[in-house]
Amino acid sequence: MDHDSSNESTGKTSSNIVASPTPTNSIMPEKVITPPTPNRPTTSINFAESSHSFGEIMQDSKNTFVFKFTNTGNEPLVIENASGSCGCTVPTYPKEPIAPGETGEIEVVYSPGKQQGEQNKTVSITANTEPNVTTLNISATVKTP
């Protein structure tokens, strides 16, 4: 008898479980959410340097480096966004399109605050390139006063 009652209870439980995943599966249109850039022709970008080391710097200092790039494609380059991996790394980028063959600059200011030791930060550049995100790297050894 113990077998029969546990089968009934298992049957009821599994029928309740089977009913609930159905709506969840129909709500998962993940592929619809991921279209990359809008309908814009792609071009290509070439940075003179994609990484920079500030070497040894002091806490609470302000350190600036300019990454220079060229639009090496055949369409105007449109930088949609540039973002640092933390609030201590702030990029400034051109808002206007860069014509094919023309150059531009992305200025990165790194302010380590109270960080210490080896630091590696990134700046992600989103543009009408393939792939649409280019990553620049900065590094430093932050010393205490």
TrEMBL record:
InterPro entries: DUF1573 (IPR011467), Ig-like_fold (IPR013783). Residues 7-27 have a biased composition (Polar residues). It holds the Pfam family DUF1573. Residues 1-43 are annotated as: Disordered. This is DUF1573 domain-containing protein. The lineage of its organism: Bacteria, Pseudomonadati, Bacteroidota, Flavobacteriia, Flavobacteriales.
